[in-house]
Design goal:
The complex is a heterodimer of chains A (about 375) and B (about 625).
Chain A: H1 2-9, H2 17-49, H3 54-78, H4 81-105, H5 109-137, H6 140-171, H7 176-203, H8 222-253, H9 257-312, H10 317-347, H11 352-363
Chain B: H1 2-20, H2 25-59, H3 73-85, H4 88-100, H5 106-113, H6 118-131, H7 137-146, H8 150-162, H9 168-171, H10 176-188, H11 192-206, H12 211-224, H13 230-237, H14 242-255, H15 261-268, H16 274-284, H17 289-298, H18 302-313, H19 318-327, H20 333-346, H21 352-376, H22 383-411, H23 415-423, H24 428-441, H25 444-450, H26 460-471, H27 479-487, H28 492-501, H29 516-526, H30 536-545, E1 548-551, E2 568-569, E3 575-579, E4 582-587, E5 592-593, H31 595-606, E6 613-619, E7 622-629
Parallel strand pairs in B: 1-6
Antiparallel strand pairs in B: 1-7, 2-5, 3-4, 6-7
Helix pairs in contact in B: 2-24, 3-4, 5-6, 6-8, 7-8, 8-10, 10-11, 10-12, 11-12, 12-14, 13-14, 14-16, 15-16, 16-18, 17-18, 17-19, 18-20, 19-20, 20-22, 21-22, 21-26, 22-23, 22-28, 23-24, 27-28, 29-30
Classes of the chains: A mainly alpha (about 375), B mainly alpha (about 625).
């Protein structure tokens, strides 16, 4: 009865519950591994190099991301998608184990420098694994309803992980976070194996590296995919800028580092909860009511409304921080609960192998 | 790749804004505003691309064809060679391609006249005939004399006669086609003496006591055309012989005598002459529309109404579109469907207000049918009750199909065709694309109403609830009320079923008159393996065609070697199939045989022979059903 009730609230139709539960659970455990790994990686990095050196790591991240994606596509050209998905999760597990072991025996600068980069790679791999599987298992109508629910698995992990990291660190050591990450990835591997066992045929409809690329109606998918990637790029760019405004105004509002850290943590949690609730309860209904067009307009419209006062009005510092925090929370929620499912919808009409490659490039 | 690149891009923007330009939060917010504007533009482009990609996914239109550059002499030469190397179809395609491009096709046609393939020769000669193009007379006369294929000989004879040089052999040719073509050529000749000779031949044929000659006279009039044959055609339309009347109807197409219009409209509803009458009415064009409108709204026969609508659909006139738009409100759902398909084929664009009103009416019909099903569920477990439930579901399915057709008419482009095919197809993923395509293309109010109707895969109670939100269906207190309502409705089939279910007497209402035997036949056909899965209304259509025949014990139905033209179903008793003393099989109640003959006939029809097909359902001893179905 509870399952049926939850299904109604989350707009899950009969027969879809199993797949949604597995995909949502998979995203939860993988994102949980990402959160704990991120906390540990940045802690080790800042402790060794200081926060001012982080931009150098940021510059290495795209290179690493491209390398991971390219490798993924190469492997995908040789094996079917089900095996590729299992290989991806197993590879994350193996690297997680290696990191944990290495941190116990060596503390070389290169290893510590690479930890945030590896963390960005984990984030890419998570998206790649979950959305590649989702795009094969769900059709375009299901994706419209269920992608926000699946995305809520990640949001839940961010909130839960955010609260648990201090507890784990307090109880054990920072390095132990990688052990937790390994456990999360091992759980992810088990879920993925179960998914492949039950839905292998649906996942294996076509090998991602084979066949020709699919032209869209005007003969080539390039123009369409360029527009899709532009949406991904610009929305992420805007979100990072908004986050930076929030961090900047926070530093002015809370000069003491402890107050600052506390407020940042609080608003991060607020954003996580807002993302979770909108993803679970609102996004699917929003997309069904306003369609994909509404989903693509929501984020830029909110950015225009919320950021215009910074430019047009001479706001007091308190008002600036309040507005920056609101923008950060609202745009974060829209980014992960509306924009992400909308972008996943944009991939759906592509031929299966082109779709997987596009998801790898866009989200990977 | 893209998201990490965006992070790097953001880092660069931040460095520029804060370090180089020394801007504060307002500067960063300005960068966000610029990004948001770009994001809106990119989203808009992506959304348009998404709709195109959905269309492509629906139509599987992954490849585009290339064209020919016909200004290039070598391409033309290559095409002309292709025309001589393939069959008649290929030759015709090349000629058409070159002619459409404004190229001179006479040299190519002259080459084709000498081709080995008789079909190509006939085609090339017909092109000369149709276009009054000049072909050396000597070549034509020579061809007419030595040609072995009658079809080619006939065309050559006509060309020769038209040039007032008919060959004596042609007038005495054993093939009537050649003789007719010669007379037609004479009548078309600019030479007065030749025309007079042709008229003499024609009069002799028209006044002959032999029906075949009179039919030939009508066929010659059809070949030549023109008002001068109006009297002849009207006279032959009233001929006592069926073949002569059919030939005269064909001649109406070319002659168009105004006084014959009522006769032709009457022929539309007559067995065996419907197709010819339809072609004739199309030839009349707008002049026939008033009478066709009357047939659509006043004829008692559903098939005649549909036939009239088809004729209207072939008439290129705005008033014809108006008649079809009016037919979208006809109580006959088959006619409504046909009218919508015809409007779509004409490229007619339905105004949004009409689309809104008509689709609302269809959704309301579907919701009413589901509401009736709800109260009838469990109330009846009889076979007729089952048929009624199936028929109500067919009403819902028809409503869905009609809404999709209306969308095709409203959109006026091919995309909704793919949507319709996908939604009514078996592929779940394609169906999802189709639904999404509708969702992105339709206005909010319209999609909120019709999208539930597109989900016939949902459980009926869920579907009923979703449809009820926008349609406000009737509320029935009980099964008896639903049956009363259906019995008084405009759908004769449902009315009759409802009356039967409520133990009423179908003959007491006009709605149910004559349908009780059909219900019995539908129930019978439901038990025949070959028909058991067909929808009830399709079975009703089949049932209305069946003819019941009774054979006595020991009587022979057909002999070995007879043409197989029927399918037989045994209602009662059994029939023995034997070859002399060897018994090949025995068919009992609900068994059938002869279906292969039926299928073979169907295959012949598809390749263009257009023969009638007989379906017969015999029993022995007992009655035999026999039905006749004509190709249209």
């Amino acid at each position: 009865v509870a399952g049926r009730g939850a299904g109604r609230v989350l707009a899950i139709e009969p027969g879809e519950g199993g797949d949604v539960a597995r995909l949502c659970g998979l995203f939860f455990v993988l994102a949980f591994g990402y959160v704990v790994g991120q906390a540990a990686g940045y802690a080790f990095f800042v402790d060794r190099f200081g926060a001012r050196q982080l931009p150098f790591a940021f510059l290495v991240m795209p290179l690493f991301g491209m390398g991971v994606t390219t490798l993924n596509l190469r492997v995908g050209a040789r094996v079917g998608l089900p095996r590729l998905l299992v290989i991806d999760v197993a590879a994350m597990l193996a690297v997680g184990v290696a990191v944990w072991v290495c941190l116990g025996s060596i503390s070389a600068a290169w290893l510590l420098f690479l930890l945030p980069v590896w963390d960005a790679g984990v984030n890419s791999m998570n998206n790649l694994v979950v959305w590649s599987a989702s795009s094969r298992l769900l059709d375009v109508r299901q994706a419209k309803r269920l992608a926000p629910v699946i995305s809520a698995g990640r949001s839940t992990a961010l909130v839960v992980g955010g609260f648990l990291v201090p507890v784990i660190v307090h109880a054990t050591t920072t390095r132990a976070l990688y052990l937790v990450q390994v456990a999360a990835f091992a759980s992810g591997l088990a879920i993925m194996a179960s998914l492949v066992r039950r839905r292998g045929a649906a996942l294996d409809s076509i090998s991602i590296g084979s066949g020709r690329t699919s032209p869209s109606a005007d003969g080539s998918p390039r123009r369409y995919l360029t527009a899709v990637f532009a949406v991904v790029f610009l929305s992420m760019l805007a979100y990072v800028l908004v986050r930076n405004i929030f961090l900047d105004r926070g530093a002015v509002q809370f000069p003491r580092p402890s107050d600052y850290a506390a407020q940042i943590g609080l608003f991060n949690a607020c954003q996580g909860v807002a993302t979770l609730l909108t993803g679970l309860l609102l996004s699917g209904r929003f997309l069904r009511r306003f369609g994909l067009r509404g989903g693509l307009i929501a984020l830029p419209a909110a950015l225009l409304v919320l950021c215009a006062p910074f430019v047009l009005l001479d706001l007091h510092a308190d008002a600036q921080f309040a507005l920056a925090a609101t923008t950060f929370v609202v745009c974060g929620a829209l980014m992960f609960s509306v924009r992400t499912p909308s972008v996943q919808l944009l991939y759906q009409p592509l031929e299966p192998h082109t779709r997987t490659r596009a998801v790898s490039t866009g989200d990977g | 790749v893209i998201e990490p690149l965006a992070l790097a891009g953001a880092a660069i923007v931040l460095l520029i804004v804060t370090r180089l330009l020394s801007w504060d939060a307002a500067g960063m917010a300005g960068a966000v505003l610029v990004s948001a504007c770009l994001l809106l533009a990119a989203g808009s482009i992506a959304f348009r691309g998404y709709r195109r990609a959905l269309d492509a996914a629906l139509s599987r239109r992954w490849l585009r064809g290339g064209g020919f550059d016909l200004s290039d002499a070598s391409t033309r030469a290559r095409l002309e060679d292709d025309a001589t190397r393939g069959g008649a179809e290929q030759a015709a395609a090349v000629v058409s391609l070159l002619a459409d491009d404004g190229q001179d096709v006479t040299p190519l046609l002259t080459r084709l006249v000498a081709h080995d393939d008789a079909e190509i020769r006939a085609y090339a000669l017909e092109q000369f005939l149709d276009n009054d193009a000049a072909l050396p007379l000597g070549a034509v006369v020579s061809l007419a004399a030595r040609e072995t294929a009658p079809e080619v000989r006939a065309v050559a004879a006509r060309l020769a006669a038209r040039a007032a040089k008919p060959s004596r052999e042609a007038m005495g040719d054993p093939d009537p086609k050649v003789r007719r073509a010669t007379v037609a050529g004479l009548l078309e000749s600019p030479d007065e003496e030749a025309r007079r000779a042709g008229q003499g031949f024609l009069d002799r044929l028209a006044n002959s006591s032999d029906a075949a000659d009179r039919a030939d006279a009508a066929r010659i009039a059809a070949m030549v055309g023109g008002a001068r044959f109006a009297g002849l055609v009207v006279a032959l339309l009233g001929d006592g012989d069926l073949e002569v009347r059919a030939a005269a109807l064909s001649a109406v197409v070319a002659v168009k005598p105004v006084s014959a219009l009522p006769l032709v409209v009457d022929a539309l509803g007559r067995e065996g002459s419907g197709a010819a009458a339809a072609s004739a009415l199309v030839a009349y064009g707008p002049a026939a529309l008033d009478r066709l409108g009357a047939v659509i709204w006043e004829s008692e026969s559903p098939s005649v109404r549909v036939r009239a609508a088809r004729v209207v659909g072939r008439i290129d006139d705005p008033d014809a579109s108006g008649l079809l738009v009016a037919a979208l409100r006809h109580p006959d759902r088959v006619l409504r469907g046909r009218a919508a398909s015809l409007l779509a084929a004409r490229g007619f664009q339905l105004p949004p207000s009409d689309l809104d009103e008509l689709s609302a009416a269809e959704v309301a019909r579907a919701a009413d049918a589901l509401a009736a099903m709800e109260v009838l569920d469990g109330g009846r477990s009889t076979a007729v009750g089952d048929v009624l439930a199936t028929s109500l579901l067919d009403v819902v399915r028809d409503a869905r199909d009609q809404v999709l057709r209306l969308l095709m008419v409203a959109e006026g482009d091919p995309a909704p065709r793919h949507i319709r095919r996908a939604i009514t197809g078996e592929d779940d993923r394609q169906r999802a694309y189709a639904l999404e395509s509708l969702d992105t293309a339709l206005p909010q109010a319209l999609k909120a109403r019709i999208l539930p109707l597109m989900r016939l895969d949902l459980p009926l109670d869920v579907l009923r609830g979703r449809l009820a939100r926008g349609a406000r269906p009737r509320r029935y207190v009980d099964a008896a009320e639903a049956l009363r309502s259906l019995a008084l409705g405009s759908d004769r089939w449902l009315a009759s079923l409802a009356l039967t279910c409520s133990d009423g007497d179908p003959s007491t209402t006009t709605g149910g008159s004559g349908l009780t035997p059909i219900i019995e036949r539908v129930l019978f056909l439901k038990r025949v393996e070959a028909f058991s899965t067909l929808p009830a209304d399709t079975l009703a259509a089949v049932a209305s065609l069946l003819i019941e025949v009774q054979l006595d014990a020991g009587e022979t139905l057909f002999e070995k070697g007879d043409d197989g033209t029927a399918m037989y179903i045994v209602i009662d008793g059994s029939i023995r199939i034997h070859d002399g003393g060897t018994v090949l099989g025995r068919v009992g109640r609900h068994g059938f045989f002869g279906e292969l003959a039926l299928l073979e006939r169907r295959a012949e029809e598809r390749v263009g022979h257009r023969r009638g097909v007989d379906v017969a359902l015999p029993i022995r001893p007992g009655p035999v059903l026999r039905a006749r179905e004509r190709s249209s």
